[in-house]
Specification:
It is a single chain. The protein is built from four helices and no strands. By secondary structure, the protein is an all-alpha fold. The mean pLDDT is 82.
C-alpha cells in the first residue's frame, strides 16, 4: 500500500527542487524519494557522459582486439584517460550533492 506525504516549501526551496528535477529528469515524487532514502540522483547530462565514456571504452577494446594489440600503448593510454575522467565526473557529482545537502541544512531554521 502506498502512502502520500505532503509538505510546504518556501519559494526558494521550490525553485531549487524544480531545478534539480529538470537536471535529473525526475518527477517530484521520484526526486523526493531518492533524496529521503539517501539515493544519489545523478543528472541526465552526467549519465549521458558516463554512458558515452563506456561506449568509447568498448570501442577502444574492440580496436585493441581487432589489431591484435597493434596499438596497445595508445589504446591503453586512452582507456586510462577515459577511466580517470569517469572517476573525476563521479566524484564531482558526489561533491555537488554534498554541497547542496549542506547548503539546505544551513538554510533550515
Amino acid at each position: 500500500m502506498t502512502r502520500r506525504i505532503t509538505f510546504r516549501l518556501s519559494a526558494s526551496e521550490h525553485a531549487q527542487i524544480s531545478d534539480d528535477m529538470a537536471v535529473c529528469g525526475l518527477t517530484v515524487s521520484s526526486l523526493a524519494r531518492k533524496r529521503l532514502l539517501g539515493v544519489r540522483a545523478a543528472s541526465r547530462a552526467d549519465l549521458a557522459v558516463l554512458s558515452e565514456l563506456r561506449r568509447l571504452g568498448g570501442l577502444l577494446k574492440h580496436i585493441h582486439n581487432e589489431t591484435r594489440g597493434g596499438y596497445s600503448s595508445l589504446t591503453a593510454q586512452a582507456i586510462k584517460d577515459l577511466s580517470a575522467y569517469a572517476r573525476a565526473l563521479t566524484e564531482k557529482t558526489k561533491n555537488t550533492e554534498k554541497r547542496r545537502a549542506a547548503s539546505q541544512e544551513d538554510s533550515e531554521p
